[in-house]
TrEMBL record:
Organism domain of life: Bacteria
Location of the active site: 185 (proton acceptor)
Organism per entry: Spirosoma telluris
In-chain residues carrying the UniProt-annotated modification N6-(pyridoxal phosphate)lysine: 185
The entry's keywords: Aminotransferase, Pyridoxal phosphate, Transferase
Keyword Nucleotide-binding carried by entry: no
GO molecular function: pyridoxal phosphate binding; transaminase activity
Family assignment from sequence similarity: Belongs to the DegT/DnrJ/EryC1 family.
GO annotation, biological process: polysaccharide biosynthetic process
Protein name per Swiss-Prot or TrEMBL: Aminotransferase
């Protein structure tokens, strides 16, 4: 049996370092906003080549806090791809703003710059490119539009730890970026954790206070802030794992390359292979018109898969007012996408077995 993702195996190479980090935090007697958080913030800012990193409780908070800090008028609009992860859409709503969904590029599954301009109104204030599956959005086009229309750009980098765009790292491409270190991400904690990266000094100062009740000094409250703190234990674990991130991303790239060259099936669409060094392959997502049949077939042969994601945001009950909208590209993606196992713990033999099994999938089901 090859599970879609076995976090126990993924964390196994880090076990000693994680245990040492936990021991260190335990005996330090300091558990919230101390040296471990400060150290991880420095390391992660360095890694992303940004001036600031602010640790927060999770990825949703990271995005929400930035959007709130920008203090746009109520009813302001934020443009996002209609196949984005639901947390990315929720962050816009939680900040009191309106998500404006636009069709993604059907090939990359990312925000399509060609669909942004027609969605811009006088209420539009920001664009939220989600670097879905570990590949950066077409930031040159997005940033050019943002400049032309005076919009902020908030990267959702929760699936793109270590991804690059040109010479820059994800997290250093817009005004700010939200990160998640949810356990299954390329850099994952052993619980919830998140961060914001930015080069904006004032924003960083405000967010540092906001994550901690709005206090820049103990018992002095400058803003009606939040409690969204990254804790010492998770920060120490993330610092222990960060040095191996590039190596793990390289392993993901190798496995992705093996899938890309090995899968030969007339009805399967493979993910884009044009940026092998830039993408970090958080997920390896293929497409098939009979996705559910393929998924069941693989399951019967001991191969676990997942679907990212089965229901588009505009069909979620939480966004009932969007239900009458139509996004054919996005809807088709949600029907067809299938994520194959891809993580640093996966073996070459497992990938070879998965490829052979996929290639044997009934050819008459090629639509
Ligand atoms: C995981 C994820 C989030 C949310 O992160 P949490 O830490 O679970 O709140 C947001 N956006 C994307 C693209 C994600 O993958």
């Amino acid at each position: 049996m090859i599970p879609f993702l076995d976090l126990k195996s993924v964390n196994k190479p880090h076990q000693l370092a994680i245990q040492a980090a936990a021991e260190h935090v335990l005996t330090s007697g300091w558990y919230i906003l101390g040296q471990e958080v400060a150290a991880f913030e420095h390391q992660f800012a360095d890694y992303c080549q940004t001036k600031h990193c602010i640790g927060v409780a999770n990825g949703l908070d990271a995005l929400t806090l930035v959007l709130k800090a920008w203090n746009f008028p109520v009813d302001s609009e934020v443009i996002i791809a209609s196949n984005a992860y639901i947390a990315s859409v929720l962050s816009i709503t939680h900040a009191g703003l309106t998500p404006i969904l636009v069709e993604p590029d059907p090939y990359t599954c990312l925000l399509d710059p060609a669909n942004i301009e027609s969605a811009i109104t006088e209420r539009t204030k920001a664009i939220l490119p989600v670097h879905l599956y570990g590949r950066c959005c077409d930031m040159a086009s997005i940033l050019a539009l943002a400049e032309r229309y005076n919009l902020k750009v908030l990267e959702d980098a929760a699936q793109a730890h270590g991804a690059t765009y040109g010479k820059k790292r994800a997290g250093n491409l817009g005004e700010a970026a939200g990160w998640s270190f949810y356990p299954s991400k390329n850099l994952g904690a052993l619980g919830d954790a998140g961060a914001i990266t930015t080069n904006d000094d004032a924003l960083a100062t405000q967010l540092r206070a906001w994550r901690n009740y709005g206090s820049s000094q103990k018992y002095v409250t400058d803003y009606q802030g939040h409690n969204s703190r990254l804790d010492e234990l998770q920060a120490a674990i993330l610092s222990a794992k960060l040095p191996l991130l590039d190596q793990e991303n390289n392993r993901r790239r190798m496995l992705a390359q093996t899938y890309l060259s090995g899968i030969r099936h007339p009805a399967i669409k493979l993910p884009p292979a044009d940026q092998p060094e830039q993408d970090v392959w958080h997920l390896f997502v293929i497409r098939h018109p009979r996705r559910d049949d393929l998924r069941a077939y693989l399951q019967e042969r001991g191969i676990g898969t997942d679907v990212h994601y089965p229901i588009p945001p505009h069909y979620q009950k939480a966004y009932a007012s969007y239900a009458q909208l139509s996004f054919p590209i996005s809807e088709q993606l949600h029907r067809e996408v299938l994520s194959l196992p891809l993580n640093p713990a996966l073996t070459d033999a497992e990938v070879a077995y998965i490829i052979d099994t996929i290639n044997e999938f009934s050819k008459e089901w090629s639509e």
